Amino acid sequence: MSTPFFPGFDVRRFALGDATIHAEVGGSGPPLLLLHGYPQTHVAWHRIAPTLARHFTVVAPDLRGYGDSVGPGGDPLHIHHCKRTLGGDQVALMQALGFERFAVMGHDRGARVGYRLCLDRPEAVSAFVSLTVVPTETMWQRAGMAFGLKAFHWYLFAQPFDLPERMLRAHPGYFLDWALRNAVLKVDAVTPEALAEYHRAFARESVRHAMVEDYRAAASIDLQHDRDDLAAGRRIACPLQVLWSASTAGAPDPVETWRAWADDVEGAAVDCGHLMAEEAPDEVLAHVLPFLQRHA
To answer: So which residues are the catalytic ones?
Structure first.
């Protein structure tokens, strides 16, 4: 079975320990794992996945707890939703498909899972593309008034259980619409069909809880994992491409930021807002295709 978002892809479910991961798989060639961000699902890739599938075997999962993937509830240390755990899901998923080594492209939360994979499992990742993300430790160091006003959910979702969950429960549809509008420069970037899918997922309490736990992890255990890597001198060994929104002009150069973490970095700004793969699919493909064809 395939879906209208990913023509020709197979819909699959994988029971992987304490999580069941929903994914769509299609195309042929070297394996490429696509990891979406908040508050989306794997549908976030629908404007570029079909083109990528002409060159790669594309695997587009929902992160644990997001979309149609399921996992356990939160725990006091947020281990169940930390990026190390989410990355472990993805290694197990790719191994279940027969891939021991693969390229990764991640956006937002998915990019944080992606760079954690690069650091934790360097033997598994051949190349990494990061969309709109700098490392979590760096992000918290730089966070100030402008960031807090624009991305207030980082602080709201990091609050203890169950304050954010109760607040989201009051009007989840309104919150999701507001979050997506706040993330784009092009008002029609998210198609009505994709928006309906995001609403379908976000309407479920378990999905909202998983998203909140993801952010709780980012303010605690993920941050500690980053600091441990920095102290130990661990670096991303695979080639890395970073793309960022041109609307962040004046911010520190993301390429230089990532060079503190990685050995081989290139990158560029893209004229769009935060939801790159939906707002500027042609520009994203123009950058990522040559990079992945060289390194995947």
So the answer is: 108, 274
